[in-house]
């Protein structure tokens, strides 16, 4: 049943964290049982190949990875690749940290693109990175300087 333009209730809820909450649950389980998966992390690079295949194909159901829909198999491969990148690769010391900005801004930007019907993932990624850098240098870093105690120097 369409309730707004050509959107159903699910279509609208899919743009919110309500439908995506189970993914946070998976993250909590992984964090809680990190000691179990830690020994397998060096092989997690193997999750990259299925992700690239799924991105460039249009398989249905649990393999789906188009638009704002994410199949379970795609999600599990994605999680594996993220864990490998975060914990299985060499750390690169940087003088900036755009991770929080990317976390905060990715969802509104991607959802804006989806609602507007813009199918330009590269432009969305570049916009997310640009806004994340802007957020770091003009909001986050100045705000961190106001702290009296820091875990690490800026």
Task: Provide a concise account of the structure shown.
By secondary structure, the chain is mainly alpha-helical. It is 60% helix and 3% strand.
Helix-strand blueprint:
Elements: E1 2-4, E2 7-8, H1 9-13, H2 17-32, H3 34-37, H4 48-55, H5 72-87, H6 99-116, H7 121-145
Antiparallel strand pairs: 1-2
Helix pairs in contact: 4-5, 6-7
Question: Any idea what the shape is?
Answer: globular
- Helix and strand succession? EEHHHHHHH
Overall pLDDT level: 85
Q: Helix count, per DSSP?
A: 7
Assembly form of the protein: single chain
Helix content: 55-70%
Query: Tally of extended strands?
Result: 2
Organism: Thiothrix litoralis
Protein name: Acyltransferase 3 domain-containing protein
Transmembrane segments: 12-32, 44-64, 70-88, 100-116, 122-139
Keywords: Membrane, Transmembrane, Transmembrane helix
Could you please describe the fold and organization of this structure?
It comes from Thiothrix litoralis. This is Acyltransferase 3 domain-containing protein. Keywords: Membrane, Transmembrane, Transmembrane helix. The chain crosses the membrane at residues 12-32, 44-64, 70-88, 100-116, 122-139. By secondary structure, this protein is mainly α. The protein has two domains: 1-92, no CATH class; 95-154. The protein has helices at residues 9-13, 17-32, 34-37, 48-55, 72-87, 99-116, 121-145; strands at residues 2-4, 7-8. It has a two-stranded antiparallel sheet. A hairpin with a 2-residue loop joins strand 1 and strand 2 (7-8). The chain is globular, with a radius of gyration of 18 Å.
